[in-house]
Amino acid sequence: MTLEIWMMFSMAAFFNIFNPEPAIIFAISNGINFGLKAVIVSAIGNVLGLLILSTVSMFGLGLILILQTSTVIFTSLKILFTPSLFKE
């Protein structure tokens, strides 16, 4: 990974960390309505979700670099995932 890509990813991650997202509003709402236990459960869910999204995005960056060099893998993934666009 080049330094430019790493810096862009780090900057995006920094702004996402300090951005008051709907998860924060959800935690405050749970705290007001249901108490501390609900806040803890929603915070754990939020952290697990962010962990999963971060992991997927890291592998996604690697996958983009692989797809740029291999047309066979790119074409096979297009064929594999195109039917999911037409589900009802």
In short:
The protein has helices at 3-17, 22-34, 36-69, 71-81. By secondary structure, it is mainly alpha-helical.
Please bin the fraction of helical residues: over 70%
Order of helices and strands: HHHH
> In total, how many beta strands?
0
Spans with pLDDT under 50 lasting ≥5 residues? none
Q: Which range does the strand content fall in?
A: under 5%
Please tell me the total number of domains.
Answer: 1
How would you name the oligomeric state of the polypeptide chains in this document?
single chain
Largest sheet properties: none
Label the overall shape: elongated
Can you give the mean pLDDT? 80
Structure overview:
The chain has helices at residues 3-17, 22-34, 36-69, 71-81. The protein has 88 residues and is mainly α. The chain has one domain (22-86). α2 packs antiparallel against α3 (36-69). The radius of gyration is 18 Å and the shape is elongated.
Top keywords for this entry?
single chain, 88 residues, mainly alpha, 4 helices, 83% helix, 0% strand, elongated
Q: What order do the helices and strands come in, and which of them pair?
A:
Blueprint: H1 3-17, H2 22-34, H3 36-69, H4 71-81
